[in-house]
Amino acid sequence: xxxxxxxxxxxxxxxxxxxxxxxxxxxxxxxxxxxxxxxxxxxxxxxxxxxxxxxxxxxxxxxxxxxxxxxxxxxxxxxxxxxxxxxxxxxxxxxxxxxxxxxxxxxxxxxxxxxxxxxxxxxxxxxxxxxxxxxxxxxxxxxxxxxxxxxxxxxxxxxxxxxxxxxxxxxxxxxxxxxxxxxxxxxxxxxxxxxxxxxxxxxxxxxxxxxxxxxxxxxxxxxxxxxxxxxxxxxxxxxxxxxxxxxxxxxxxxxxxxxxxxxxxxxxxxxxxxxxxxxxxxxxxxxxxxxxxxxxxxxxxxxxxxxxxxxxxxxxxxxxxxxxxxxxxxxxxxxxxxxxxxxxxxxxxx
Length: 350
Known about the structure:
Blueprint: E1 7-10, E2 16-20, E3 31-35, H1 39-48, H2 55-72, H3 78-93, H4 100-115, H5 120-150, E4 157-161, H6 176-182, E5 187-193, H7 200-211, E6 216-219, H8 224-229, E7 235-238, E8 242-244, E9 249-252, H9 255-264, E10 269-272, E11 278-279, H10 296-299, E12 300-301, E13 304-305, E14 318-321, E15 328-331, E16 334-337, H11 341-349
Helix pairs in contact: 1-2, 1-3, 2-3, 2-4, 2-5, 3-4, 3-5, 4-5, 5-6
């Protein structure tokens, strides 16, 4: 089966960014089109509203959003076009606070915008090329991580994964699901956490695995301990939205609980991410800003309300798993066993 894609780009005189609307999967596959007139603000809203999600995919989408913004102003002179693009950067930065790939992409595009001196048209061409380059780099990184991570799994492995860290969360192939794709001949089964409250596992990961006929079973988040206790999980493989300099990992809410359970049952927890997700400016996990999403995503879903009217609900979208619970951090540059500050610093210097 062909691999799933989260986003696709058509350049030229009438550029269009298309994003698969992940809010309505798996009921329907619908591509939303963002032409030049949508600009950075339109892409920022797509990120904020979860049309596109997953740290690497958010970063790539933001880069394309800047290219769309540049297309809007390509008939301006260099100084005026540059001013418009720099003003658009905070709009994208405000869309979601936890995924560091967003800020990595923004910083990379800012450097390009400030360095391009020629014209509005040249800024458009440069930003479009850079976004396409970032897209291709992410796919290549995911494939490298997949190969490295698959080598850590035993033959016949039964893997548990949480949230969606697949092709839908990246530029293609996936981080955690990239490991599963690369190791599909070694993996006998995948346990898919439903991932409350936004159900990324039940809706997205399950859909991706079924598209490629990889054997999988959906479980509620609260069932993970049961299957670990019964000896039916050999490894937990997850992605991440930000890794602090000391190895602490911010990922979808519920990951910390899985880390505690995996340690209690002597099961390895593997975290898979590109080096762009490692934030050396953040010393530890406690310093990471945790996004708070709307309570309505907890009290119901898809138009169905299951809690009493007026019920208060908390919704931290992420939690932090201490580095001490991470068996290995898998990146495109290599595998860091038992990550800590010194080992991550060495990785980043490699």
